[in-house]
Amino acid sequence: MNEQSKAPEDCATMAEVRAGVDATDRALMDLLDRRFGYMRAAARIKADRGVVRDEARKAQVIGNARADAAVRGLPADALAAIWEQLVEASIAYELVEWDRIRT
Q1: pTM, rounded to two decimals
Q2: Which residues contact 98 (CB under 8 A, 6 or more apart)?
Q3: Is the CATH code 1.20.59.10 the one for domain 8-102?
Q4: Rounded Cα–Cα distance for residues 23 and 26 (Å)
Q5: 74's torsion region: left (phi>0), alpha (psi -120 to 50) or beta?
Q6: CB 23 within 8 A of CB 7
């Protein structure tokens, strides 16, 4: 968050809430950029395209997200569904990168 956005508990107006949401969305995009950077690294490191999809690792990542959400009192099922989409998008991206690097 930046100096212009307040912590959620300090917001008194919808403008402040919206500024905080927008700042958080930008921070999430920065984190997603970093996460997809790791997918580029994985594509570079994995010698076999067939190992890009790892269902056990996928289940572990989604399970971790679900458990973390539950501990935080967040909607665990909904966030697990978002993580399912995130992991699938990551796999698709990694496959494209794997092919790009090797062609």
Answers
A1: 0.91
A2: 43, 46, 49, 52
A3: yes
A4: 5
A5: beta
A6: no
Determine the residue type at 63.
Answer: G
Which pair of structure tokens corresponds to residue 97?
């990168």
Q: How far apart are the first and last CA of the chain?
A: 40
Which residue ranges make up each domain of the chain?
8-102
* Of the candidates 8, 93, 79, 5, the residue with the CA atom closest to the CA atom of residue 43: 93
12-67 pLDDT, tens digit per residue, is: 999 999 999 999 999 999 999 999 999 999 999 999 999 999 999 999 999 999 99
State which amino acid sits at residue 27.
Answer: A
